[in-house]
Amino acid sequence: xxxxxxxxxxxxxxxxxxxxxxxxxxxxxxxxxxxxxxxxxxxxxxxxxxxxxxxxxxxxxxxxxxxxxxxxxxxxxxxxxxxxxxxxxxxxxxxxxxxxxxxxxxxxxxxxxxxxxxxxxxxxxxxxxxxxxxxxxxxxxxxxxxxxxxxxxxxxxxxxxxxxxxxxxxxxxxxxxxxxxxxxxxxxxxxxxxxxxxxxxxxxxxxxxxxxxxxxxxxxxxxxxxxxxxxxxxxxxxxxxxxxxxxxxxxxxxxxxxxxxxxxxxxxxxxxxxxxxxxxxxxxxxxxxxxxxxxxxxxxxxxxxxxxxxxxxxxxxxxxxxxxxxxx
Length: 328
Known about the structure:
This protein is an alpha/beta fold. The protein has helices spanning about 10-25, 30-50, 75-85, 100-110, 140-150, 165-175, 195-210, 230-235, 260-270, 290-295, 310-320, and strands at about 60-65, 90-95, 115-120, 135-140, 155-160, 185-190, 220-225, 240-250, 250-255, 275-285, 300-305. The protein has 11 helices and 11 strands. The model has no long low-confidence stretch (mean pLDDT about 95).
């Protein structure tokens, strides 16, 4: 079947997908479960095709309430943040609905915005700013929509919202805390003088961390601010020197745009010795697997073996390498 359709790339993965589909039929899977599976795969395929032309363009996803009205300070903040990032070459991804989503799409402009909408019986409608078919995809399920809103972006800005926004925010925090997503900048942006995200941070710190349900530094990866300029800097500045990371067993290799000097490396070791399970932060050579896969082989690298649950410290290390005098 694969040969007859002319597929030559990634044949083993295509075989796994086909085998799973046939297996569902052999398992006498219920019609409802088959409909869920078919719709999810079809939606993902459509979304992959939407994002494919922009794979090399950095993207930021902006979350927030669909009920925020035009002209509200939060609407204006989302619009300004999207515009500022678009001017720096970013694309803005939204849920393609009204409110904050429409504000962000308006700020980015039609050439710099993509939308992943959800089919609901009420309230949400595709934003006029992302309503064209070549810039928007509609989803039936929240889980496939969240996958695409998170998977394709290199930064996230969350503005105040209801259950949906909180669900998306907690999804980001969960993925980061558990290591299921590589480090990304997350900004919780409020109106000037607002208490929405400060109240959220207090709950996380006092109730979750205070009860031992999370680590005390788990919120260190997040910027809580009411400044649009600070939000833009947090997203763009996260990638100033830091490029990416990759695990080799329990060793973490971090790829940078500029190699640190000996003095800078010594300073990093002094400041982040507690992050290391053993040894310290050292320069690293490109691994054969990275060369074979074309995985950023030309970039300078540092490596360390971090202790478990040190995610907050890892974010501080990334900020530190971005602030080195040698950083671009």
